[in-house]
Specification:
The chain is an alpha+beta fold and about 140 residues long. The chain is built from 4 helices and 7 strands; from the N terminus they run E-H-H-E-E-H-E-E-E-E-H. Strands 4-5-6-7 form a 4-stranded antiparallel β-sheet. The protein has a 3-stranded antiparallel β-sheet with strand order 1-2-3. The longest helix has 19 residues, at about 115-130. The chain is globular and about 35 Å long. It starts with a strand and ends in an 8-residue tail after the last helix.
Length: about 140
């Protein structure tokens, strides 16, 4: 079993003023962290604090490309690290390898595409709800 979860909380004051942020508030916004946990076979494969807005941007762009038929590797990189932090690599038509510089196991693992996409959609919706949607707004 494969799961990908993200846990964080955005201050309501930021959500309320999302569309009218100053440059200083935007920098604060980019600094928000979240705990990303990836489990495989009920064991933690990856669990780290990540820059949530940056991760969201990368993941959303990859997912939109995927939906348009472009099956490309997902590579989450930051300026703080020389190697990508998290990678989803297409191995064949329906299998993806998950790897990370912070993995808790020695080897990457393979999962089916439909499982990966289900978990990616779940994480995107969670982040979108917290970052982009005002209180009491349906997804």
């Amino acid at each position: 079993m494969f799961t990908m979860n993200i846990e964080f909380s955005i201050p309501i004051s930021y959500r309320a003023m999302y569309s009218k942020m100053t440059i200083d508030e935007i920098y604060d916004y980019l600094d928000w962290d979240a705990t990303l946990t990836i489990k495989h076979n009920n064991q933690i494969f990856f669990e780290e604090e990540i820059a949530i807005v940056e991760f969201y941007w990368h993941l959303l762009h990859w997912y939109r490309d995927f939906l348009s038929g472009q099956k490309q590797h997902f590579i989450y990189s930051t300026v703080e690290h020389t190697e990508p932090i998290l990678v989803f690599s297409l191995k064949n038509n329906n299998d993806w390898a998950i790897d990370s510089i912070w993995k808790k196991h020695e080897k990457p693992f393979l999962i089916k595409e439909e499982i990966l996409i289900h978990e990616v959609k779940k994480v995107i919706k969670t982040i979108m709800y917290q970052i982009e949607k005002p209180d009491n707004s349906p997804i």
